[in-house]
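This part of the workshop introduces the protein records we will be handling. Backbone structure tokens are a discrete shorthand for how the chain folds in space. Once this layout is familiar, the rest of the handout is easier to follow. The record below serves as our worked example for the rest of this section.
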Amino acid sequence: MAHTFPAQPAGSASAGQALYEAKCGGCHSVDANRIGPRHRDVVGRKVASVPGFDYSDALKKLGGVWTRARLDTWLRNPQAVAPGTRMFLSVSDPRQRRDIVAYLASVSKPAK
């Protein structure tokens, strides 16, 4: 018999916005490339695909699409996901990650 796991709470976009501004805002913006790429529409976007942003080789090689689950893994330890990336900030608290990802999803186009 297969195990079933309860769905994780989706997170709070409003709490995530405050966390994003506090933890991510030094390098990222929703609408402008800064030290890091802009984040509007990040959920569902191809990795390393923001026009005009100079990504690290580690991210260029990563491939795939940013999903909620992948963003959670990324925020937990970006160096483990893409060794050599320029991002060193990690968010160890699972609730904070869920909230930040919920906020990023709220500023992304809905999946079709």
In short: The longest helix spans residues 94-106.
